[in-house]
Amino acid sequence: MSINPEKMLQKCKNGQWNIGDFDWSKTPEVTLDQETEMRICQLYLDMSYIERIAGNLFLALSDLMDDPVLKEIYYYCYIDEVRHSEAVAKLADYFDVHQYKIYTPSFALLRFIPRFSKAIRSVNPAVANFYVLTGELILDIALLKKINEYVDDPMSQAVVQKINADESRHIAMDIFMTEHCSTHDMNTDTTMSDKFKSIVTIAELMIYGPQFALDLFFRPMQMLDPTQKELEAVMRRLRRLYTKEEIKHNPTVKPFNQTLAFFDGKYGSKLGAGFRRAGQGVTGINFDWMLAGSPTQAGKNSLKEGTADFSAIELAEEILEDA
């Protein structure tokens, strides 16, 4: 494995910080018009709930660990995400200069949270870890980065820098666990009832997840990152990680790679193009970022594409350097 758990645990302990370290009595140094202020406050408020979702994922993984060191590491990751939630909520208040409205969580988010919270306790830990990894890449890194760049304020920059320091550990652990689940069967389903509940919860995610993704991520990213640079980076990194020999037996790897291989192929690529056009017609969202890292896109804005010999720490550091 590419991580020493004992050293990682010590990094988790040493990396703790407090939101009280910041002077929240300050006012933003940037001036936002009414529409932008309202949009940013809403995004930060929703992000505070998303951070709580990430915390629940880490807490679920902590409960599933038999190794006491891994259990404690994931509990620290949970503590980190709770702190991130509080910090991002404070940023929502910080930018709420004119108090144009009382901000409440997005409806799609409120519908998604209870289903997702139930699902993470019933799926294979390898699947839960995949949720964590992709969620942190697209939400904690890409979306939070673009919001931070958009407002370009010293307070938000300082807070996000602290959050990113935590995320470097989280992403390294996500990659470590992707490898771990390739060699350890951690599926806790033991009865038909458990398996049935898992199927039901995944079905609920398929019903409520798309609107959550559209409203809370894809639409904001289309506004904040019209070039799709960050989304493309997420896709290339997932492709790159999933080519590692060490994870070929992870339960999430084979279906992920098989799906990509189909849509990268001669007929699948045509079908995929049709799906993307249809999706854009219905939602207004451009899904061409999904081609990033495919054979047809090889070499375009490559993030060390094709290099499968890397450690969890190295990839985490690379991601956060770009962030």
Oligomer state of the chains in this structure: single chain
Question: Count the strands?
Answer: 0
Sheet with the most strands, sense and barrel status: none
State the fourth-level CATH superfamily of the domain at 5-228.
Answer: Ribonucleotide Reductase, subunit A
CATH class of the domain at 5-228: Mainly Alpha
Low-confidence stretches: 305-310
Q: Can you describe what's shown?
A:
- The chain is 70% helix and 0% strand.
- The chain has 323 residues and is mainly α.
- The protein has a domain of 224 residues: Orthogonal Bundle (Ribonucleotide Reductase, subunit A), CATH 1.10.620.
- Helix 9 crosses helix 10.
- The two termini are 25 Å apart.
Brief digest:
With 323 residues, this protein is mostly helical. 70% of the residues lie in helices and 0% in strands.
Protein traits:
about 325 residues; Ribonucleotide Reductase, subunit A; globular
SSE order and pairing:
Blueprint (H helix, E strand, L loop, with lengths): L4 H10 L19 H31 L3 H28 L11 H13 L5 H27 L2 H30 L8 H33 L4 H13 L11 H12 L1 H18 L28 H11 L1
